Amino acid sequence: MKEAGRKQVVTPDASRGLGRTILALAVPALGALIAEPLFLLADMAIVGHLGINELAGAGLGTTVLQTAVGLMVFLAYSTTPAVARAIGAGDLGRAMAAGRDGIWLALGLGVVLGLAGFFGAPMLAAAMGAQGEVLRFAVDYIQYSTFGIPAMLLVLAATGVLRGMQDTKTPLYVAGIGFAANIALNLILVYPLGMSVAGAALGTSIAQWGMAAVYLWMLIPRIRNAGQSLAPHGRGVLGTGQVGSWLMLRTLSLRLALLATVWVATGQGALTLAAHQLVFTIFTFMAFALDALAIAAQALIGKELGAGDAVRANLLTRTMCRWGLYFGVATGALLAVIAPFVGALFTTNDSVREATMVGVWILAASQPVCGLVFVLDGVLIGAGDARYLAVAGVVTLLVYLPLLFIVTRFEHAGVSAVAWIWVAFGLGFMLARAATLTWRVRNDKWMRLGA
């Protein structure tokens, strides 16, 4: 690897060209990634005006749904580098076969998760600490959302295929249209049809199925044109699942951290839970925005390593780390400015709005670290370094849980509770992640060249 690095020289023109290449993937990816949390923001904004119990219930249901679907994000994260490596090596047939098998795996897992979520909704919501009206609304949201889980996973896998093909524009268009349809459906189902929280969940499910249908319509001809059968290949499906198992462990550690945080917020009462969920929804929105560079990293790192170009992979890593920090500073400044006003978009409750403002200020301070974390995560996913990511995720979780436990040892209410929860998560947890990821890229051991 080092010998390959000495044979190549990176010129200023090459660096400028690299910047344009990153932007060509990252900018459309930004739009597509923002569209996904906009689904959740739309739900929270529409439901938030129904009442605090509806908002807390939908927030809790959203957390359960995100946990289930989030564990399956490997469907995109394993498909993107697999397709990108094959593209870099000049093997389009292999790339399309990897995409096909990922899609089949997504459909199978989606059906299983959807059924489990529907019948297990009351138990899941109760396990999160919900009671009374909050429990009822949480169950409604989970059950009506499970209809869309197979579609959500299909969208993940299909998006991963297109990213691996260096196409981030198509997901932008599909997500944009899906978001517009989602808002229209939710407004109709929640208000004129009177379905309350259930209507918001059902509208999102219908929108996700529409997006999944568009992706299948686009990808099926490409798979056939590459000379590949539409039938799944058993070894390919199992291979995707095997690679994804490490990424699932990595994601599981992240989700456990999020669930533990929600559990602590739930124990502080409906006001704290509602405010925390609003801050977390904004965190998710900003995380997807910061992840635009990570998506570019997955596709570009996978392609360059598949082509055997270690020098360009190193240059990509350094460049995107700088950009991640800069972008984090910019998004943090934006959040600091809008923090006093953002709560009013979701609720008329003054106490919830005040607690949300403080939480968003703490989130703003953590944004530069978040930018670095998401970029490095994308680099290592693109390199196929799933095993290290899984181990690092477990280590980070073990660091974070004691911090969260300390928060529970003190009696908090409203603003104070939300503030300390977000100090532990937004600063403590993210700094721990940054430390483990930075340690990995200190040398070239994470690189694996070739298809």
Automatic annotation (TrEMBL):
Designated name of the protein: MATE family efflux protein
NCBIfam families named among the record's database cross-references: matE
Topology relative to the membrane: Multi-pass membrane protein
Record key words, sorted: Cell membrane, Membrane, Transmembrane, Transmembrane helix, Transport
Family: Belongs to the multi antimicrobial extrusion (MATE) (TC 2.A.66.1) family.
Highest taxon above the source species: Bacteria
Subcellular location: Cell membrane
InterPro entries, per database record: DinF-like (IPR044644), MATE_fam (IPR002528), MdtK-like (IPR048279)
Transmembrane segments: 21-46, 58-77, 103-129, 141-160, 172-191, 197-220, 256-276, 282-302, 323-346, 358-376, 388-407, 419-439
